[in-house]
Structures are given as C-alpha cells and as structure tokens.
Amino acid sequence: MKKLLFFIPFVCVLAAADVDIREYASPKLGKRVESIVWNVSYSYNARDTRSPRALLVGDSVCRGYHGLVRTALGSKVNISYLATSNCITDPLFLPVLELMFAREKYDIVIFNNGLHSLSTDRKMWKESFSKALDYMAKRLPGTVIVVLNSTPKRDGDKKVDEINALAAEVAKAKNLPLADIHALCKDWNKKEWRDNYHFSKKAIKKQAEFVSSVILKHIKRTADGIVQAGSETGPDGKIK
Fold first, then answer.
1. Cβ(116)–Cβ(38) below 8 Å
2. To pair with 201 at 20 to 30 A between CA atoms, which of 24, 26, 39, 60?
3. In what order do the strands lie in the sheet with 53-58?
4. DSSP one-letter string for 124-139
C-alpha cells in the first residue's frame, strides 16, 4: 500500500502539468529523513483568479513572515505559500510543490531551499536545485522566478554559506535574480533570534519587508484595491 501511495502523486502531476516530473525530481533523498517531516501551505483569496499572485516557497522562516507579506501587499498582490521541511533532494519535493501549481497561476515565485539541507550531499543538492528551477520554468512559462537564499543560523554555521554559494551559482547560470536575505540578517544582534534558526517578531517584520520589496521589484504587474476575502472558518478554527 505504501508503494501505491508513493506512486499516486507522480501520476497526478503528470496529468495536471503535461510535464514529466520524473525528469526533474530527485531519484533519492540525499540525507537521512528527519524525525518530523511537514508541509504547510495556504492560498489566500483563492477565489480571485484575475489578480496577480505571488508564491513563497521556503521553510519555517517563510512560514514566519508570509502573513506580514500578505498584510503588506494584500491590496496589490495575492499571496500563496508553501513551507516544507523537505530537502530539495526528496523525491516528493516536486510532487508537493506541484499541488500548488495545479491550484493557482502565479506571476512570481520566490523560491528557497537550504536550511533543511545542511547535511545533504552538496553535489546532489546543487543538481536537484537546478532541476527544480528547470521544472518551474517549463511548468510555469511567463512566471518570474526569484531565488531567495537561506537565512543564517544564530551560531554562524558555515554550512549555510556553502548552500547559499551553490544557490547563487545556479541562479547566475540560469540568469535568475537572487534575493540576498542572508545579508539582511547575518549581522543582527543575537537577540533578534529566538533560537538557532528562528527570529524575533521585530526581525520577522524586517524579513517580510525585504521579501515584499523583492516581489514589487520583480513582478510584472500589480493590482489596486484587492479585497482579501476570508473563509467562514479560518485554519485556526476561528470565524473569519
């Protein structure tokens, strides 16, 4: 049964995308699987299919700032996001991402992967990262793709620098813009962190301002006066 469940996502995305995802997905995970594997995604204002939309792809840092990006840009750009613990070398990374592509059309994708890849084989990570960008380019013609590098760790782990250097190489080779959020955060006072990976509310606000500015810089169109509609029950169980 497990093998069947593993196969189903590939069948679905082959039919939805008209792109053979198996040409781009990693054949195997380049590190030990984490003890907790998670994926969180929201598509805000999903009924609005005419206004511009940005997709943020990242990890728990992305999950931290996405709401403030929505607050900042909600009248101009709709926001969707996928935060995941999956390393780019996980064979299921692209099928999970494809679920976002199948639902919405995007004017811009801000793409990050790295902090859950610090123990991943570097050659394999670079190859998988490159193929993922190729997949997005073919799957989303006309969509602006921006590479966002990874935020630093509070302890100054040099492995983050190694991953970011590879991401920069790939972005340059593909002529894609690189947004350097690492530079924004690297000299912050240690009080701006709440643990080795995550940030204070004040720092998250700065990150959201940075990401918002990247979207406005690279997106080809914005709207004026988008109304952000809510659902009768929000994901936190409260009436919206």
1. no
2. 39
3. 39-43, 78-84, 53-58, 108-111, 144-148, 178-179
4. HHHHHHHHHHHHHHHH
